[in-house]
């Protein structure tokens, strides 16, 4: 391990911590992050469920959230296994690195430390995904405690409290899922360390730049922000005096 390696590793940790701190704030350059905007949409979703008794749509959404989290958790386990398999192929990796240009290989010990750090990244991601899966499970149970419309109308305060419990649990589960996914993304930048520490810092900066752009300057963020109705909205252009297509207008013609 050289001084440049330690500097690159410190840069990686500081940039990760700084980006996580940035997302905990409400705004960045006056812009709300995609994560915070989705938090409000989660709230709209749960409160909308109070106005219907048939909640099959909501349970399907919950199942989709759990399935996605389980997929990334199992993927993290496979990645950890791949890291241990890579440790057993150090000799072959040395032979490959010896033929590659611009690759600074500092020996077996440094390579094993880098692979160990990569395995730690995937282990962190697995724990985040595993806990997120458990919280989504709790969220499903809390959602089952939301009262029906008749009970909601008789006790609105109790219904709103039940909805707020679901919202808080759902937001916390989503936060852990995002942190695990962030570790997966940053592992792509971590791979640059196997070339040399300067590439490591460059790939890390590129990954953080892409993630920041998606959070604050992407089309996905604009798609869920509150805005006026589009000019080409077809439903708003319908006239009340136009005959309907359901067959009811035929009665006056008979």
Automatic annotation (TrEMBL):
Q: What's in the keyword line of the UniProt record?
A: Membrane, Transmembrane, Transmembrane helix
Alphabetical list of Pfam families matching this protein: DUF599
Q: Does the keyword Transmembrane helix apply?
A: yes
Transmembrane stretches, by residue range?
Answer: 6-23, 70-89, 109-127, 190-211
* Protein name as it appears in the record: DUF599 domain-containing protein
The top of its lineage is:
Bacteria, Pseudomonadati, Pseudomonadota, Alphaproteobacteria, Hyphomicrobiales
């Amino acid at each position: 391990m050289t001084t440049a390696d330690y500097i690159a590793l410190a840069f990686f940790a500081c940039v990760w911590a700084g980006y996580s701190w940035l997302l905990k704030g409400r705004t960045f350059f006056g812009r709300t992050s995609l994560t915070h905007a989705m938090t409000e949409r989660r709230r709209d979703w749960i409160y909308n469920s109070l106005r219907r008794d048939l909640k099959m749509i909501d349970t399907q959404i919950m199942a989709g959230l759990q399935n996605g989290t389980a997929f990334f958790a199992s993927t993290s386990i496979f990645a950890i296994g791949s890291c241990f398999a890579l440790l057993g192929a150090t000799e072959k990796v040395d032979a490959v690195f010896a033929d590659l240009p611009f690759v600074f290989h500092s020996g077996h010990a440094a390579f094993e430390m880098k692979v160990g750090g990569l395995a730690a990244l995937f282990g962190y991601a697995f724990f985040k995904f595993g806990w997120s899966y458990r919280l989504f499970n709790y969220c499903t149970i809390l959602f089952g405690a939301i009262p029906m419309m008749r009970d909601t109308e008789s006790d609105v305060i109790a219904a709103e409290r039940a909805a707020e419990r679901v919202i808080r649990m759902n937001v916390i589960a989503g936060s852990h899922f995002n942190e695990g996914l962030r570790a997966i993304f940053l592992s792509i930048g971590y791979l640059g360390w196997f070339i040399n520490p300067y590439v490591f810092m460059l790939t890390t900066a590129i990954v953080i730049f892409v993630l920041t752009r998606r959070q604050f300057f992407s089309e996905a963020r604009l798609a869920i922000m509150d805005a006026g109705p589009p000019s080409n909205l077809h439903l708003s252009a319908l006239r009340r005096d136009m005959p309907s297509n359901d067959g009811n207008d035929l009665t006056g013609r008979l």
